[in-house]
Amino acid sequence: MKTMHKEHPLTKNQQIIFDLIDKSPEPMKAYSILFNVQKKGIKAPLQVYRALDKLVEIGKIHKIESRNAFIACHNSSCQVANATAFSICEVCEKVTEISSVGLSKYLANFKDKDGMKYSKYNLEFFGLCKKCR
Amino acid sequence: MKTMHKEHPLTKNQQIIFDLIDKSPEPMKAYSILFNVQKKGIKAPLQVYRALDKLVEIGKIHKIESRNAFIACHNSSCQVANATAFSICEVCEKVTEISSVGLSKYLANFKDKDGMKYSKYNLEFFGLCKKCR
DNA sequence: TTACATGGTGTTATATTATAACAATTTAAA
DNA sequence: TTTAAATTGTTATAATATAACACCATGTAA
Q: Hey, which residues does B85 pair with through a beta bridge?
């Protein structure tokens, strides 16, 4: 067996916000999330950001740093929470999580000149998606 | 001969801001830049952001997306403006630009399942630097 | 030369993204 | 069952970034 993951169930706010992001076909921004969950009683930015922080921490969602937006993890979750790669279309802004064994192996084993080894990485590719090409 | 780059000289604001970033041992944030150049007559955020945008565009500086901070390019500049990789220490926040031929070749040639080819990427590694280990 | 296109500047105002601080409550464990 | 840890709700505010508009400098074409 590889890694053990205690499956903490999500709290109410976390679940509401995860469900919303998970259903979304595109990355969602924090204040758009806030707007969408206000009817469910989540009224303040902090409530959103706290849930987002937690969801990122446990690997259920990822932050697309270049877009300040959040997307649900589609790589069988937690295992890759610390090793993320995305493709981003610069025209339509479609974002796709990349799952390539080759890529993740390569990056996980990458050592720089100082022999520094990394516990985590985030890679964002930019280009044109099929549709926009 | 490989690629031709017309060397547009920097404008006054661009030069002031580039010099500041270039001298800085660590990535600088926009409002810290603003504070530091106010004595030179740059008074508004927009003046800073405009210069930053341009400097990023021409490859003189890079944005560290996960930190919202800017660092001067140390990879003989423009060639790699669209292919950036950094190592970030999660304790002391030291950021170093990675120049690895292997890595950049690997990423430049990476194709995902859809055969999508990318014009650009940004990679951020996280870990502990020598000092902090 | 004139005109006109392009890119840069200066300015005010505002939008967007994110956190501080504090009190109350829930949950999980010891 | 009391204690520690995490979560919540709330108000206020910090930090990051852009919109809109008027003006100016420079290069190019008529």
A: B123
Q: Which residues of chain A have a Cβ shorter than 8 Å from any chain B Cβ?
A: 65-66, 87, 90, 96, 98, 100, 103, 106-107, 110, 112-114, 116-130
3-state SS, residue A127: strand
Q: For B50, phi and psi rounded to 5 degrees? A: -65, -40
Residues of B in contact with A129 (CB under 8 A): 116
Task: Tell me which residue in A87, A103, A122 faces B116 most closely, judged by beta carbons.
Answer: A87
**B13, two tokens:** 């604001």
Give the residue-averaged pLDDT of B119-124: 95
Spatial neighbors of A114 by CB under 8 A, at least 6 apart, are B130
> Which residue is the nearest neighbor of D17, CA to C1'?
B49
**Cα B102 from Cα A31, distance rounded (Å):** 40
Identify the residue whose Cα has the smallest distance to the C1' of C20. Answer: A46
Structural domains for chain A = 12-127 (1.10.10.10)
Which residues partner with B97 through β-bridges?
B86
Q: What are the b/e assignments for A47-85, b being 16+ CB within 10 Å?
A: bbeebbebbeebbbbbbbbbbebbbbbebeeeebbebbb
Which residues in chain B have their CB less than 8 angstroms from residue A125's CB?
110, 112, 118, 120-121
Q: Under a CB-based contact definition with an 8 Å cutoff, are residues B27 and B67 in contact?
A: yes
pLDDT in tens, A44-76: 999 999 999 999 999 999 999 999 999 999 886
